[in-house]
Amino acid sequence: MLSIRMKTIGGRIKEERLRLGMTQEKMAELCGVGRQAQLRYESDERSPDGYYFEAIAKVGGNIEYILTGRCSSSVKEDHPKYSVPDYVEIAHYNVQAAAGSGAIPISEELLQPLAFRRDWLVKRHLSPNDLVIVDVKGESMEPKLLNGDLVLVDKSQTDIASGKTFVLRMDGHILVKNLQLLPHGLVQVASFNTGYPAYQVDLSDESLDMAVIGRVVASMHEW
After folding, report:
1. Taking a C-beta distance cutoff of 8 angstroms, is the pair 179, 120 a contact?
2. Is the peptide bond before 128 cis (omega within 30 degrees of 0)?
3. Given the DSSP bridges, would you call strands 110-117 and 186-190 parallel, antiparallel or unpaired?
4. What dihedral angle (degrees, nearest 10) is formed by the CA atoms of 40, 41, 45, 51?
5. Among 85, 75, 62, which Cα is nearest to 6's?
6. Spatial separation of the C-alpha atoms in residues 101 and 169, rounded to whole Å
7. Exposure string (b/e) for 107-133, b if CB count within 10 Å is 16 or more?
8. Residue 168 forms beta bridges with which residues?
9. What torsion do the CA atoms of 99, 105, 107, 111 make, to the nearest 10 degrees?
10. Which of 46, 138, 203, 204 could make a disulfide contact with 40, Cβ separation 3.0–4.6 Å?
11. pLDDT tens, N- to C-terminus, the chain (223 residues)
């Protein structure tokens, strides 16, 4: 069967958008432009800038194909929609996020990465470049997170959102906890396990050694 390839950059932008299963509105939102700009890019009325192409790459677009109409992968040239792998590897670090009193990281050795479907990440607006996997240690986050579970952490989400679960560093310890914003600059640090009492920290305290590493967006455990 003869495959007709798009002859313009705008046409190939549209082709990649459709391959990723996105509407013009969704692609525009993820790439930081308006829908009208996306429409003009696809119709070749305007040329995107480098920031736009960088954003497309982060959500799984094949920039080489968009710019040149070619791809250097081993996939046949007459099937460009398969030029980007369906899976992407996410780094897995040898760091344990303690669901308890806290673990002091000894090293940040890279372990065997895990593969996630690219379309699964795109659907959830997750960029592979912002994601890491760490291990859970302890029982304070049971029953939601068990000892030995793996959590997928989005490092781009560091703003504290009430009711969300984060991996954070506090006083040199790596923790996985639920955070909730309180009045007067206070944050409540809580566990799912009611046997571990919640406590508060004051963000205005200059002696506070606390940094949010990222938000937990998924978890995995073995049966």
Report:
1. no
2. no
3. unpaired
4. 110
5. 62
6. 12
7. eeeeeeeeebebeebbeeebbbebbbb
8. 175, 212
9. 10
10. 46
11. 233 344 688 888 988 888 887 888 888 998 999 989 999 998 889 989 888 998 888 888 888 888 887 765 443 344 444 344 577 888 887 766 655 554 444 445 667 778 888 888 888 888 888 898 988 888 888 888 888 888 999 998 988 888 899 998 888 888 889 999 888 889 999 989 888 889 898 888 888 888 899 999 998 876 6
Residue 84 contacts residue 118 (beta carbons within 8 Å): yes
Residue 29: partners with Cβ closer than 8 Å, 6 or more residues away: none
The two tokens of residue 20 are: 């990723």
Angle between the N-to-C axes of helices 9-19 and 35-42, in degrees from 0 to 180, rounded to the nearest 10: 120
Burial of 2 (0-12, 13-18, 19+ CB in 10 A): exposed
Two structure tokens written together for 174? 């790596």
Element of type H or E holding 9: helix 9-19
- Among the listed residues 118, 123, 116, the one whose alpha carbon sits nearest the alpha carbon of residue 23: 123
